[in-house]
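Design request, tokens follow.
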């Protein structure tokens, strides 16, 4: 905590400073993609912890320690706000780290929960994510705070992350696994499903087809980008520059395998990424 607070000597970042976004690896790029759409004039510094992914099978202590290191790194880049793009880190670390930093910080869970509670008609909400995120019980606890009448059914879907990272977005193997995972949610008669993991928006069409058209899918990445806009507005931190820098305002850092990261990023982002810089996150 002391080290996080030591940023007091750093000048407070102004409106044109970048937004720091972090994730356990490549998945947070689905959040970056939505921020680029919602806030095209903003600069972004992204960090993907590709050396230590996955977070979804790790303990709260470990994910909190990793998140603190990443925030220290982002502070050296003078970011004006931080987005925890990783659902697992939002669930396990955000509560603690938000007390320790002086700049605004937002995770993906609260925005997702808020929209899901507004979307459901029958009060039955499903949530899918990593083992750790589902175990944390974070979505049920937020949703119950908003509306005590909702019933939340969580289902971990650990194989979705490797399937997406292997590029099997439209594949019979992904269909088969998705059927097995999702059948329990179909049986529970949910009408709303939260895609509670960074990777899941990339297999949205498969999930939508299996769940059927009566089930509305909530993408926390999308909701978070708009919530971020509201937060920056409120804090008077929106960038005043004109949009259209053609992608030059985005910088990417990873802890390993920069080339693999770059290829994945270029398959899902509008702007081509020329390079991702590797840093030693253990030094922070
Ligand atoms: N980014 C993680 C999440 O959204 C998924 C990958 C991992 O397990 O680290 O929960």
């Amino acid at each position: 905590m002391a080290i996080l607070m030591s940023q007091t000597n750093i000048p407070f970042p102004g409106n044109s400073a970048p937004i720091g976004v972090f994730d356990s690896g490549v998945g947070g790029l689905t959040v970056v993609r939505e921020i680029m759409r919602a806030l095209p004039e903003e600069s972004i510094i992204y960090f993907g912890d590709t050396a230590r992914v996955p977070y979804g099978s790790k303990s709260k202590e470990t994910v909190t320690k990793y998140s603190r290191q990443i925030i220290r790194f982002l502070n050296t880049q003078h970011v004006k706000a931080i987005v925890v793009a990783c659902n697992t880190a939002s669930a396990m670390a955000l509560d603690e780290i938000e007390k320790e930093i002086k700049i605004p910080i937002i995770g993906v869970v609260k925005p997702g929960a808020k929209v899901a509670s507004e979307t459901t008609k029958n009060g039955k909400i499903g949530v899918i994510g990593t083992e750790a995120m589902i175990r944390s019980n974070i979505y049920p606890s937020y949703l119950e705070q908003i509306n005590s009448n909702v019933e939340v059914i969580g289902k971990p879907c650990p194989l979705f992350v490797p399937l997406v990272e292997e590029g099997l977005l439209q594949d019979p193997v992904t269909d088969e696994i998705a059927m097995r995972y999702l059948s329990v949610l179909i049986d529970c008669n949910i009408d709303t499903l939260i895609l509670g993991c960074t990777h899941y928006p990339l297999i949205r069409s498969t999930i939508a087809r299996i769940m059927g058209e009566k089930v509305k899918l909530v993408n926390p990445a999308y909701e978070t980008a708009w919530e971020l806009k509201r937060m920056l507005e409120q804090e008077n931190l929106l960038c005043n520059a004109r949009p259209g820098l053609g992608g030059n305002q985005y910088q990417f850092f990873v802890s390993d395998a920069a080339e693999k990261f770059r290829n994945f990023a270029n398959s899902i982002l509008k702007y081509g990424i020329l390079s991702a810089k590797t840093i030693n996150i253990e030094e922070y």
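Comment from the thread starter after seeing the answer: thanks! Residues 60-76 form the longest helix (17 residues).
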